[in-house]
């Protein structure tokens, strides 16, 4: 399963149908339709309607790119996460990047690699974002669609710097192509990643495994509470019957003994004289034997008197 999590989209875009059809033909399965906003957020922000003639084999997601220039702005990220499937931040300076890596809640950090970045990437700052589950995105569309030699040179240099600073971890690759001509097949993207310094295995993870983790973690954030409690449909409640079932451990009612059920009641077997004698203690047995001897002696004496 191959993912492209950055395809610019607007409701009046005539090229979007050709782009989506081409993505489906070359093997992509999940595509994120991106809306970019800079400056102050509008009061009612919602993703545009999905294209009607999109291929059925594609899983379409909604994404928002938010350009950050001031670290103190854009405090409505919590409400945006409920409206969009993915929320990506695009910092323009080092302070905004540090704030996005350490404090802000987002799914992706996507930098514009077609321009020269005026600061250096630091491993400590980037690793803090990766530990929080945030991934860094490299978009190759700006360096392919004829933006000029400077844009291509900046893309290669910035991508190599990011890969070196992150040590190849937590990176995804997207197209950001506005037309079908700017899209490349998945294995061509893997070859590009090898040119930038990623291994072939890490390049494949950048468009398969890492992108899948981004979508799965974003869905988990939006449908659960702190990733621990999820709302699951358990079906309808069963109908309450008239006869309530008996509770376990409840005391049974005593059945009165009558002539009708007297024969059905179980009776304990009466012990035999031998069993009764064995159940007595030795002291009781001696006492009873002595009583029997005394009774026998008294009976014989009485017989002698009557005979005389």
UniProtKB/TrEMBL annotation:
GO terms for cellular component: nucleolar ribonuclease P complex. It is found in: Nucleus. Signal peptide: none annotated. Residues 264-283 have a biased composition (Basic and acidic residues). Keywords: tRNA processing. One of its GO terms (molecular function) is RNA binding. Residues 239-308 are annotated as: Disordered. SUPFAM superfamilies: PHP domain-like. Its main location: nucleus. One of its GO terms (biological process) is tRNA processing. Belongs to the eukaryotic/archaeal RNase P protein component 3 family. This is Putative ribonuclease P complex subunit Pop2. It comes from Aspergillus ruber (strain CBS 135680). The lineage of its organism: Eukaryota, Fungi, Dikarya, Ascomycota, Pezizomycotina.
């Amino acid at each position: 399963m191959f993912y492209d999590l950055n395809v610019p989209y607007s409701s009046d875009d005539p090229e979007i149908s050709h782009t989506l059809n081409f993505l489906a033909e070359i093997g992509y399965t999940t595509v994120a339709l991106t809306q970019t906003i800079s400056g102050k957020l509008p009061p009612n922000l919602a993703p545009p309607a999905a294209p009607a003639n999109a291929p059925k084999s594609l899983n379409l997601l909604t994404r928002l790119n938010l350009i950050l220039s001031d670290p103190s702005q854009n405090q409505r990220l919590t409400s945006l996460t409920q409206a969009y499937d993915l929320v990506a931040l695009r910092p323009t300076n080092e302070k905004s990047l540090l704030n996005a890596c350490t404090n802000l809640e987002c799914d992706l950090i996507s930098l514009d690699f077609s321009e020269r970045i005026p600061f250096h990437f630091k491993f400590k700052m980037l690793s803090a974002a990766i530990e929080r589950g945030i991934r860094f995105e490299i978009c190759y569309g700006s360096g392919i669609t004829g933006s000029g030699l400077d844009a291509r040179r900046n893309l290669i240099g910035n991508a190599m710097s990011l890969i070196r600073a992150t040590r190849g971890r937590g990176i995804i690759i997207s197209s950001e192509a506005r037309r079908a001509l700017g899209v490349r097949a998945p294995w061509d993207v893997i070859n590009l990643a090898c040119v930038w310094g990623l291994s072939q295995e890490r390049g494949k993870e950048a468009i398969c495994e890492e992108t899948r983790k981004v979508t799965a973690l974003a869905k988990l954030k939006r449908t659960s509470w702190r990733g621990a409690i999820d709302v699951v449909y358990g079906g309808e409640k069963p109908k309450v019957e008239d006869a309530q079932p008996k509770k376990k451990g409840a005391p049974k009612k005593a059945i009165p003994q009558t002539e009708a059920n007297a024969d059905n009641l179980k009776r304990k077997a009466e012990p035999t004289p031998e069993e009764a004698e064995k159940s007595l203690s030795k002291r009781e047995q001696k006492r009873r034997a002595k009583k029997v001897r005394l009774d026998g002696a008294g009976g014989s004496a009485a017989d002698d008197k009557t005979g005389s």
